[in-house]
Amino acid sequence: MRDHALPSEPPASPLASPGTANPRELAREAVLGRFLRAHRERLAPAEVGLAPGRRRRTPGLRREELAQLAGLSATWVTWLEQGRPVALSARALASLAGALRLSRAERAYLFELAGRRDPMQAQDGHVPATVMASVEAIKGPAYLLDRQWNALAWNAAAAGLFVGWLDPASGERNLLRSMFLSQPLQALVEDWPHRAARLVAEFRAHSIRHAEDPPTRALVEGLLAESPAFRADWLSQDVEERQGGRRGFRHPLHGLLHFEQLTLVPAAAPGLTLVMLMPA
Question: Which residue stretches, if any, does this entry annotate as coiled coil (predicted)?
Fold first, then answer.
């Protein structure tokens, strides 16, 4: 079935208006075109259930065959391989990735080149067994966050440290909501106003590619209504990378504790974030 969001014929010119295209974007489109063509030509017809045919002048699939397998217009496949500026939907990219039999790494590369988020990335609520095992194996506090920064997994050390968030008595597992709505967590975090503002700036940068997803919008809109402090930090428009560094906690049982934070994206679950705290 064809993607009806795509026209069947190209406009008169490959560029909507001369001089308006970003050269860096055009370079990325050219790389995307070469990538698609290379993978089309290396895919044998027999691998996708097609007869090889007699008059095949180029190796691999024809553009028309790839278009048919992906449910797209052959014109658009041609455009893409020529490096023209084509705004494909995530659904159309997923169809191309499936038709080309791309590996997980190749599929991620395709979506990155196209500037789209893969709908088949690690789904919220699902933690691969290998990632779960890594969280448990870490000696210091460690936890795993989804796209909205809900804690999906954490070890015993994290549960013991994060009073008001990951401890058994807390019913809220979202890091942002706990940071702004949990008084025990606010008391725990050293220099809370600074750390809370920094966390909002990091979340703004982290969530930009899925800012319009319903769960992300619901999280932000809820906090805007419930927390004046979050509202002030969010409206400041600050943006920061989620980096490591020294973290201080005033624990009710163990006193002042300091850690060095390390944040990673697991290769087995690129939609998730693994955070580890090591004694400073």
Answer: none
